[in-house]
Amino acid sequence: MTSDPKRHHYIPACYIARFSSGSETSRRLRRVAILRRTASKVVLQTAEQVGAINHFYRNQVGSSSDPLSLERTWSAYEDELTYALDSLQEWGSPTVTGRIWLRILVPFVAGLLVRGPDFNVRHAQRLESQGISLADLGIDEARNSNTARLVELQRLLAGVMAAKWRILHFNSASLISNDLGYGIRRHGNNVQLFGYVIPLNSRMALEIIPARHREVLQPRGIGGWSPIIEHSMGGDVDGLNRAIASIARDFVIGASDQEVIGYKEQLQQETGVPDPGLLGFPQGRLALAHENEWHRLVSMLRYCPGDMRVGRFEIDWDEVLSDWSPGIIYVVDLKRLPPTGLHESNGGISLTLHHVDGFSVNRSAKRERDWFKCEAQ
Question: DSSP class of residue 372?
Fold first, then answer.
């Protein structure tokens, strides 16, 4: 990324390039076949031309004086994203370390849910449902949305960590992707459980299934940690491609025009993009109660399995800021952090997104004061 890029990618260019059959040294120059909703034919474009809007993130975020602070947040994990996604290809993901998972892959997944123009729409709809008009309040909508992206990113990390991760392998190289970077489909035979499916290249996808409890890390070799990631065969490629095309807002991409042209009908469908909370990811007070689980877990990575300090899950802010982080965002009137949902389990680390009494459920005025400062203070 240049020091002051004009085009801001809401889908990483290195991700777009994974669907190209080209072999250019610079991944950004690899061409993909793209079919837009408003177009009648497929065209070839380079990865750097796709999924980007001029100066999309160029606004001051929160109290930051850097107009590119949000763009730098994304680019900081994109530097290692190609390596991290390649590491998922081998069955069992033996080369994916705890650091790669927490600092690169988890923010990549959470980032897909907040980086795009669809977030602006969903955020505006939330405010409208609460009777809030930014225009009436004299608040800049673009700046407000960009600040909300960072807040949402931090609160999504725990839900993404707790979700079930599964790599789907396909025999045929014909997977497509879209301007969201994911599709949504029902998990197995459960008619009420949906998850995200993120195509990683033309033969592989990552399925993220929301859960409230899961073992997330296990001991790795001598003194390390690795994430729990399942692998299986993917099954119906055409059905998944249809799901990807039907939720796209603007375009679908693939390695060739033959791979994308067959989904023109699905691309024309006006399907809304649901909030993650509608799929089962934590939202509201529950998300707020667990928004620091990521900070706790990256702080713990410096300790070896079996170290007595592991189970304390204390936040070390120097460790948090030593590598990629979503920034430090606090509710200003929060007196203390809620208890963690992280715990040791058979040598590994599990995460439970539990309700916190008096914080996220069954709140009373007295219990509320236990967590938040009173207005008079």
Answer: B
Q: Are 195 and 247 in contact (CB under 8 A)?
A: no
Distance of CA 306 to the CA centre of its chain: 30
Find all residues with CB under 8 Å of 19, minimum gap 6, and list them. 32, 175, 176, 177, 199, 201, 202, 253, 254, 255
Neighbours of 152 (CB within 10 A): 21
- Sole residue written with tokens 């309700």: 355
* Joined tokens for residue 372: 């938040």
Cα–Cα distance list, 112 to 117, 160, 215, 295 (Å):
11, 11, 23, 20
Whole-model pTM: value is 0.91
- CB neighbours of residue 317 within 10 Å: 11
pLDDT tens digits, the chain, 377 residues: what are they?
A: 445 567 899 999 999 999 999 888 899 999 999 999 988 899 999 999 999 999 888 775 555 557 778 888 999 999 999 999 999 998 887 889 999 999 999 999 999 999 999 998 888 888 888 787 777 776 667 677 888 898 899 999 999 999 999 999 998 879 999 999 999 988 766 656 789 999 999 999 999 999 999 999 999 877 799 999 999 998 889 999 999 999 999 999 999 999 999 999 999 887 889 999 999 999 988 998 999 999 999 999 999 999 999 999 999 999 999 999 987 666 656 667 788 999 998 889 999 999 888 776 655 565 555 655 543 33
Would you list the DSSP string of 50-73? SSEEETTT-S--TT---TTHHHHH
